[in-house]
Amino acid sequence: MDCYTANWNPLGDSAFYRKYELYSMDWDLKEELRDCLVAAAPYGGPIALLRNPWRKEKAASVRPVLDIYSASGVPLASLLWKSGPVVSLGWSAEEELLCVQEDGAVLVYGLHGDFRRHFSMGNEVLQNRVLDARIFHTEFGSGVAILTGAHRFTLSANVGDLKLRRMPEVPGLQSAPSCWTTLCQDRVAHILLAVGPDLYLLDHAACSAVIPPGLAPGVSSFLQMAVSFTYRHLALFTDTGYIWMGTASLKEKLCEFNCNIRAPPKQMVWCSRPRSKERAVVVAWERRLMVVGDAPESIQFVLDEDSYLVPELDGVRIFSRSTHEFLHEVPAASEEIFKIASMAPGALLLEAQKEYEKESQKADEYLREIQELGQLTQAVQQCIEAAGHEHQPEMQKSLLRAASFGKCFLDRFPPDSFVRMCQDLRVLNAVRDYHIGIPLTYSQYKQLTIQVLLDRLVLRRLYPLAIQICEYLRLPEVQGVSRILAHWACYKVQQKDVSDEDVARAINQKLGDTPGVSYSDIAARAYGCGRTELAIKLLEYEPRSGEQVPLLLKMKRSKLALSKAIESGDTDLVFTVLLHLKNELNRGDFFMTLRNQPMALSLYRQFCKHQELETLKDLYNQDDNHQELGSFHIRASYAAEERIEGRVAALQTAADAFYKAKNEFAAKATEDQMRLLRLQRRLEDELGGQFLDLSLHDTVTTLILGGHNKRAEQLARDFRIPDKRLWWLKLTALADLEDWEELEKFSKSKKSPIGYLPFVEICMKQHNKYEAKKYASRVGPEQKVKALLLVGDVAQAADVAIEHRNEAELSLVLSHCTGATDGATADKIQRARAQAQKK
Amino acid sequence: MAFPHRPDAPELPDFSMLKRLARDQLIYLLEQQHEVDKLYKVENKPALSSSEQLCFLVRPRIKNMRYIANLVNADKLAGRTRKYKVIFSPQKFYACEMVLEEEGIYGDVSCDEWAFSLLPLDVDLLSMELPEFFRDYFLEGDQRWINTVAQALHLLSTLYGSFPNCYGIGRCAKMSYELWRKLEEEEDGETKGRRPEIGHIFLLDRDMDFVTALCSQVVYEGLVDDTFRIKCGSVDFGPEVTSSDKSLKVLLNAEDKVFNEIRNEHFSNVFGFLSQKARNLQAQYDRRRGMDIKQMKNFVSQELKGLKQEHRLLSLHIGACESIMKKKTKQDFQELIKTEHALLEGFSIRESTSYIEEHIDRQVSPIESLRLMCLLSITENTDKAAGKITDAFSSLAKRSNFRAISKKLNLIPRVDGEYDLKVPRDMAYVFSGAYVPLSCRIIEQVLERRSWQGLDEVVRLLNCSEFAFTDMIKDDKASSESLRLILVVFLGGCTFSEISALRFLGREKGYRFIFLTTAVTNSARLMEAMSEVKA
């Protein structure tokens, strides 16, 4: 391990920078990088190259090609550029490629070269053209800033929610600024631009001149400016070869450096690590790379090839035709362990472990040394942390082995940090693989989160790897495997060369009943690709019928939607479909559809009952449902009609319907009601008073009460009121009138069909005991006891009961023997009972 | 009296959680979210309130939407602007929104939902308070509430664990059950780990047994319901009961110690029991005499309050009893009961028919006459009598095989001598020993067999061959105690007589029954639900 620090370059006293190779690129670049528009997404994202034919004076006749590669140079897409001249390329946070055209149009492509959408940066640009554009990232998403031919800036802080902001004019600006950049402060995007020796800050309200504190004199122009990844720091490169580094707010200077190179650099980017005190900027010229910071000397590298810098959270990626490297400040843990002659606990532990493997006793010595200082925990932690920052699996392993070795000598070292690091590194090594080509560092990975990493794998259609990672990390299915399978299925439905059956089957085989997978979402995607049949097939797998319905409606499969809605048992859903159908189909078809769906039909009927009575009638008509039609008209005769003629007419229609329905009883009853109505009307006209809507019974009663006995008799005959009912009716009415004379006459008119007990009862109800007694004598023997009890003649009732030798009657009388005077009677009954038992 | 439970009877699950849930939600909804300060009933008339905001808490019915629309439109005509909020419970229906739209007020109101479905009326009785369920489903064929039922069952299983044994009969029972299962599947994981608290669930459609619901009730609680109408577990006792000049609203549940002892009793025992109780109470009061100061102090501080409370309840129930006696012990009630029993037993049909005719001739009450005709129609399996009266009733009179079922299930107990109502032998006591409620008998038989096995003939006679189901979900975690707890779900309502009968069965067998019903019903409510006037 002697040469391990060979690629470490000190910058000042306290920091080392190292550059190591990520990939050797074997992309078959036809062009020189310098001839291309280049965009590389941060977090080890893809690289887009567009040979720039528009830069040259004479427009080339060949159309340029837009190529997209993974960070390892694996081609992802290649397409012929057919649109207008492009000014700038950039990747959004969702890894969508934004291509800003000269006419202000921004075309958005997916990772695989699939066109997504486009938007415009405003009409003003159409005449003035776009001179320059930047794609930048803020906490809100990805933004675009453009500089127009009129030297005005327009920006949108989030292309997902496009709001264009035209920035104020810079007073007296006649030519394009020598350099500019977007800043992001207090959640607002600003633009910093340099014109000659002056710097201006544009926010959406004003343009203000700013002066960096402590800027060396003699500057007549700024050639390059760079903002750090987090927008916290700013670096300015002047025409005097001087670099100013300070805060992005321009309130504080951090350091400065004079490199004495006056040639404008090709690129300048910050290279710093989160939570590190070191600040450094990487400046690239054609053949030279320089790392400068707060130190008198800089680190210099020679560039063999045309290279491109990609700023990252914790360093800089540098790629060229043949290699892809990473330059960063050596993290503290690694520095502690690997620095030459380091006595840090981690370094000792690593050494101890190596000796242990050699079976050397020195292992014990080293270990003792750490333990004596009580630094074993720290040593283990250092090794774990350093492992995370190593790129080579070999080195990761040896550090982890050391940590594991050290752990053995600790009583209570929580294992999770070790375990988690092992897991993280496995994931990282997997995605760093050449074929995958996402060279994430540990810090970047933690910043990005596993969820986003999974999204990016899905975006690259690396479904199996994503699923393996989910399973390996034991992520909950809904967040992990299910989500990925759903994405996979959504991708699968776009494969137009596979038949609907095969796609549906393949999807179902893989997804099965995985929780959290929504087949309706996948079906919606299939429908979005114009594959309606496939969508329907996929919906068949959706277990929740309710979820199937909205899409089926959208696909105009309303009838299928209806049966699905009915299956779901959700009435509301059925109703939604019904009203949809009602508008979509003509009335006849609609009714026919309903006819086969009794549940929907009854639902619709109910709705019609309240809201559309006429439709209800049509429905019954359509079905030749005469019974219901009859009932409908009966209801109408009460609710809708007020005039007697109208009511009778409605009843007539009802009666006709009932005949058609072969419901003779209902028809006859309806006809009777018609007759009664007419008759009541006549009675009202002739006699006055209220008759309408009385029942037949009440009509007759009213007539009797009014003294119209003849009429009452007539009515009873006309409507064939049964004798028994008529007797009850008359009896009650006459008693109400207290017309006892007439009642007696009536009782004697012929033999009562209801017997005479009712007479007793009714008289007693009117509290006329005298009259009641008259009738009690006429009550037949079977009911005699009851009658006598009713009029309160307990003694006689007892006699009759005894005479009848009827046990039930005896107990009935006995139960009435409550008064003090009934004592004798009670005794009598008891005696009779005793006698009966003797026999 | 008030038969004690067997010592091994399981404890009932705690439903107070549901109560708290409902109360807190309502308070939050009304007070905090909408700052409601006064409550009115939603009716088809102008609002009296001068408030700036009206909030309607309604069932999702088209009728209610019309009321609201009328009110809003009246305000509009009067040039008044207010805010309107409609809270649908348990859920909003698309049809309602449609009506609001058609009435042109969709833009004026905002809508909300309150997914409330279970109200614990008592320690063993949960009601969904959906009296409209019966008419909507069984008459109109509207299945809108099935989803609500499934949701309610889902809520129960999340709170009290899944049910290892499920039984059901009836089309609605089956649909509700299947929908509920689907909900469980969609949301699995949460309930799976729970130890089941209730071992059995039994779903039963009301149309399996209309007979029982159509009978006059004679156990105390049922009789109180028939006479005074119990609403939401409380009853308004009028002046004739309270023997004062005002009415009194009384909560009727297990917390009323007096009521709890008589609720399941046949009415003939109640009065005797109450007077005995009164004598005991008097005796306890009388103990005061001859007490020294210390004892008296003790008595006042510890016993007097309880005694007074008991005294108050006792006098209320005695009042209620007297009032019921006045109405029900008259000759005609005895005759009525006699006729009903004759119909149930299927003898002296001619006399029963002429009794019903006389009932009509006397014009006693159209609803009562119809009820008797329905009973006649179902028990005699003819639709000649009732079916023709109105189309609404013809749905009741669909082919019923009551006679055959009654024979098969032995619903009419053979009694030698007097049936001792004080010491009931079987569930028939709730109908004076004349008839075992069909619904309860079905439940008893299935629970005994743990399936429908051997009941094929009954199921066929009930016309339910496709809709009788058993589902055992093997669960080793179910304790033996939970396996003696049975949740009976009545779809379309149940009567207090059925509840009393099953409570009796539970005591006999060492089970505890819990009841979930769409609403508590009785014969009058059933008949009213079918007439259009009230609907």
TrEMBL record, chain A:
Domain Vps16 C-terminal: 517-835
One cellular-component annotation, GO: HOPS complex
Molecular functions per Gene Ontology: actin binding
Entry coiled-coil feature ranges: 349-376
Membrane protein topology class: Peripheral membrane protein
GO terms under biological process: endosomal transport; intracellular protein transport; vacuole fusion, non-autophagic
Keyword Transport in record: yes
One Pfam family it belongs to: Vps16_N
Keyword Protein transport included in the entry's annotation: yes
Subunit structure: Core component of at least two putative endosomal tethering complexes, the homotypic fusion and vacuole protein sorting (HOPS) complex and the class C core vacuole/endosome tethering (CORVET) complex. Their common core is composed of the class C Vps proteins VPS11, VPS16, VPS18 and VPS33A, which in HOPS further associates with VPS39 and VPS41 and in CORVET with VPS8 and TGFBRAP1. Interacts with RAB5C. Interacts with STX17, MON1B. Associates with adapter protein complex 3 (AP-3) and clathrin:AP-3 complexes.
Name of the protein in its database record: Vacuolar protein sorting-associated protein 16 homolog
Designated gene of the protein: VPS16
UniProtKB/TrEMBL annotation, chain B:
InterPro entries: Sec-1-like_dom1, Sec-1-like_dom3a, Sec1-like, Sec1-like_dom2, Sec1-like_sf, VPS33_dom3b
GO cellular component: clathrin-coated vesicle; late endosome membrane; lysosomal membrane
Keywords: Protein transport, Transport
Topology term for the membrane: Peripheral membrane protein
Chief location of this protein within or outside the cell: cytoplasm
GO biological process: protein transport; vesicle-mediated transport
Subcellular compartments: Cytoplasmic vesicle, Clathrin-coated vesicle; Late endosome membrane; Lysosome membrane
Matches recorded under Pfam families: Sec1
Family membership noted in the UniProt record: Belongs to the STXBP/unc-18/SEC1 family.
Protein name: VPS33B late endosome and lysosome associated
Species this chain originates from: Propithecus coquereli (Coquerel's sifaka)
Taxonomic path: Eukaryota, Metazoa, Chordata, Craniata, Vertebrata
Gene for this chain: VPS33B
